[in-house]
From TrEMBL:
Species of provenance: Papilio xuthus
GO cellular component, as recorded: Golgi apparatus; lysosome
Name this polypeptide is given: WW domain-containing oxidoreductase
Subcellular location: Golgi apparatus; Lysosome
Residues annotated as domain WW: 10-43, 51-84
UniProt similarity note: Belongs to the short-chain dehydrogenases/reductases (SDR) family.
SMART domains: WW
InterPro entries (alphabetical): NAD(P)-bd_dom_sf, Sc_DH/Rdtase_CS, SDR_fam, WW_dom, WW_dom_sf
Nucleotidyltransferase listed as a keyword: no
One BP annotation, GO: apoptotic process
Superkingdom of this protein's organism: Eukaryota
MF terms (GO), sorted A to Z: oxidoreductase activity
Amino acid sequence: MHNLDSDSEDELPPGWVEKSTDDGNVYFVNSGTNKIQWTHPRTGRKKIIPQDLPFGWTKTVDETGKTLYVQQETGNKTYVDPRLAFATEEKKHVNDFRQRFDSSTTAFQVLHGIDLSGKFALITGCNAGIGYETAKSLARHGCNILMANRNMEATKKAIADIVKETNASEDNLKSIHLDLASLESVKKCAMTVKTIFSDYLDILILNAAVFGLPYTETIDKLETTFQVNYLAHLYFTLLLEPLLKKGTRVIFVSSESHRFASLQNVFTQQNVAMTRDSYSSMMAYNNSKLYMVMIAKILSEEWRDKQICVNSLHPGNMVYTNLSKSWWLFRLLFFIVRPFTKSMQQAAATTVYTAVASELDHVTGLYFNNCYYCAPSELSRDEDLAWEVFTLSLKIIEERMGSDGIQKYIYKCMTRLNGEKK
């Protein structure tokens, strides 16, 4: 397993020590010559540390007035600033960060030392599976979680389980009804969320999904996988835009399956969902995940000036969750490959990483896998195609729900379309 506490390039030469200032800067001291410098003696780069102490640590002074750090849970004391464990190189470019984690990393390891007290996160589809593990991991570190799910009984049990397993406060875990198969439910939920989070939402994780369904239609007369996995999430996100401020992180949980999407015959009758005649459950899933990557990229550009960060990700290959419950053959296949896939903690790691990692401040428009960014499919990077999907998606929503909350994007799409026609 990758050693999370070691980095050979960062290793100091003999005789050098790393120290910190109160305002979050790192400096280096040569104990032999007493030489002091701001750059790493090996890499030549500056480093910075978080301004806040890691979760559970406090700062005091000893009897001589020297700064002393205390770990409240264990009582351990040290003169070494614990923030130095989370030092990062000062970026020359916003996307200039090194890989700290790998495919074996768990959400627990990603969150080590991080305090999320006072943070507010909304997660869809989190009463089981990866979403549940994500909510549990964030709650364990003090985050206030609003769990948006269709099954409220299961959500009530999930909250009780999280409280029992993490000692998180029940006051920090709330639930709200959200049925992604109903755009009216999406609108109602968004309106209620705005009353709960009257000012600011720190993290929005769009996690809910269905997989392997036969062709069915929602109450909105749309193919179910298309609406639940993608369209309803898009609508929900746009309606919640007033709560998204500088520093908010919006995370679209996609899949490596997006690389196998096919848009052949999809745009029939101005509808980006698959029709009954050409329907394939696997392809419907692949396409929905492609749309998630596309829309994450579009919104990252639309909200860049507001410093709202929008990214997409892949959590893990064939993770054994209730996602496969729709057909016995899928359940069997997922069961067979279970020993070779990620655990729930590992599968939640990338979602948690994109939600909280300090090096991802201001990072937007990327696709992540195994806690690091990678190039999404070539199809997802087709900007014109992505805007066509966006335009048709908004049209579908407008036909059923009107233009409230999405009007400015409809106008922008029409302006872009008219400009292309000229």
